From TrEMBL:
The keyword Glycoprotein applies. The chain crosses the membrane at residues 64-87, 99-123, 143-166, 178-200, 246-268, 280-297, 317-343. Residues 80-340 form the G-protein coupled receptors family 1 profile domain. Belongs to the chemokine-like receptor (CMKLR) family. Belongs to the G-protein coupled receptor 1 family. Keywords: Cell membrane, Disulfide bond, G-protein coupled receptor, Glycoprotein, Membrane, Receptor, Transducer, Transmembrane, Transmembrane helix. GO terms for cellular component: plasma membrane. Signal peptide: none annotated. Pfam families: 7tm_1. It is found in: Cell membrane. GO terms for biological process: complement receptor mediated signaling pathway; inflammatory response; phospholipase C-activating G protein-coupled receptor signaling pathway; positive regulation of cytosolic calcium ion concentration. This is G-protein coupled receptors family 1 profile domain-containing protein. It is a multi-pass membrane protein. The keyword Transmembrane helix applies.
Amino acid sequence: MGCRMAEMCQDQYFTMNLNSGHLHNTFTSSKMDTNATSEESLYGDYEDYSDHDEHAGLRDSVHLLAVVIYSIAFLLGVIGNGLVIFVTGFRMKRTVNTVWFLNLAIADFVFTFFLPLSAAYMALGFHWPFGKVLCKLSSTVAFLNMFASVFLLTIISMDRCVSVVCPVWGQNYRTPRLASLVALGIWAAALVLSSPYLVFRDTRPSPSEENTTHCYNNFALSDNFQSEEADELSEHRHRAMVLTRFVVGFLVPFTIILICYGVIMAKLKGNRLTRSSRPFKIMVAVVLAFFICWFPYHVFSFLEMSVSTVTPWLQMVLMVGTPLASGLAYFNSCLNPFLYVFVGQDFREKLRMSVLAAFENAFSETSAQALTKSKSSLEVDCHLV
């Protein structure tokens, strides 16, 4: 997660990975074509701004800050989630909890792995040299991560609720195999909900700059940017996608999560030891982190979609707030590993042991027998939640 200025702002865009949103308004200015499917760059159609406009300095600073944020999120996300995948997938006993958090780490890892494309797109002045396939794939992966993450958090909350309310049933039916099947269903649902970006993402040469290609949302699936019919179709599809993203990917899941934790708190009322336990704190921290990181993104999605008149003040708010909200959403994908480490003592101990074992095996000149012995000594039952 600035616009080209005319009577109205045509398209206020979020990051090429995260946001399909833009302000669909009709223009009469001759400075730009009436294009409801024009370039979707990070925060707006910055490529059409004059280098000498009054906000050029601020915009360049925001771009630089965003590149730094993406780079940090990439490094922390790939390393942190890679370690979580390594520990939960190879060093810990397979349990329902490890299945949940392994899948959550995979979603975040794949997303952060594509972040250099976003950083490069901005650093190159919103020139996309990576081709149409990666243009489609990078945006699809971003929303795949969003839907998969929030669905996993929802199912984890429901799982915790069932364990508290119906402990006997949970003990009999909560199995890693069932959790794996549920996780597979979550991935399928997330893929279906993110698949429109495989269709709508497109590339085209910049109308104002030579040797520049933009990666944008072609909601009308048309190259006729002057068509009023295409503009109307694009607006309807854009609104439908923003509403679906908010309702299915944020509002409904968090309503379920709040209900689950309300039930848990009521059930554990008076049991301070259970409510203050590390597993409970971990889950609350992860859910709060997701809410804090993604809520501003959805706020700006609705803001830039619903406004009809762009004032200088609103332009400034969108130009500064949108990249910050987008960067905050990116950062969520690298936060969870640190929450596990700093909140979960058991996971921290297991991570320390796994890293030490990996280094020892890498530098050891002993036989494979020692490796097997080291591995078997580390495979003990340890719970994330």
